[in-house]
Design a protein that fits this description.
Put_HupE_UreJ; mainly alpha; globular; transmembrane helix; 72% helix; membrane
């Protein structure tokens, strides 16, 4: 297996890993208000996110940008909460097949900006994989393409489930949006609390140790 293929698989595995589900939650939050019928809008939205995380992934991996990992671990679930909360303001159109009303255009710059944050998270993982490796172009390219492929899988699954529930089973779109967004918010808040608790435990002095 070539180096490019190896990093492509690592990128795909990283974004689809259920143990590190923060990126999965964000992509789901982006797509919650859509179904397969809206695939063109989703492509634009996901492209904005891709552009954002590709920029910071490249810059941070090459050493041009440096942000403390602790801040990134906090900011990523914050981006999930904000994105999911925006879904609660979505107003259901009269017909999903003749939808003329566009979702808020604010979603696109938000996806781009939050993509910058997620790219920093991706770069921390990639830099750990690279170690002291001198050549990073092909690993970076393969890893980023792997991320995109995994991202597309998550988008396809989310849109397909929404299509079945809304278009075929006739579940109200607002119910689907509110329930899924509420679950996503809850899971993201638990990530924030877990990170805060971890920081508190690791920053506090050990039991029995002298306090300066």
């Amino acid at each position: 297996m070539s180096e490019f293929q190896a990093y492509l698989q690592l990128g795909f595995s990283h974004i689809t890993d259920s143990n590190g589900y923060d990126h999965i939650l964000f992509i789901m939050a982006l797509c919650t208000i859509y179904t397969l019928i809206n695939w063109k809008k989703v492509i634009v939205l996901v492209t904005a996110f891709t552009v954002g995380h590709s920029i910071t992934l490249a810059l941070a991996t090459m050493g041009y940008v440096a942000v403390k990992p602790d801040w990134i671990e906090l900011l990523i679930p914050v981006t999930i909460v904000i994105t999911a909360c925006l879904n609660f303001f979505y107003k259901e159109p009269k017909s999903t097949f003749s939808q003329k009303k566009q979702p808020s255009s604010l979603r696109y710059p938000i996806a781009l900006f939050f993509g910058l944050v997620h790219g920093l998270g991706f770069s921390n993982y990639l830099k750990a994989l690279l170690g002291k490796e001198a050549e990073i172009f092909y690993p970076l390219l393969g890893f980023n393409i792997g991320l995109e492929l995994g991202q597309l899988v998550i988008v396809l699954i989310t849109l397909s489930v929404a299509f079945v529930l809304i278009e075929l089973l006739r579940i109200q779109r607002t119910s689907w949006i509110n329930i899924l967004s509420g679950i996503i918010v809850g899971m993201a808040l638990s990530l924030i609390l877990n990170n805060a608790l971890f920081e508190t435990l690791t920053s506090s002095p050990a039991v029995g140790s002298p306090v300066n």
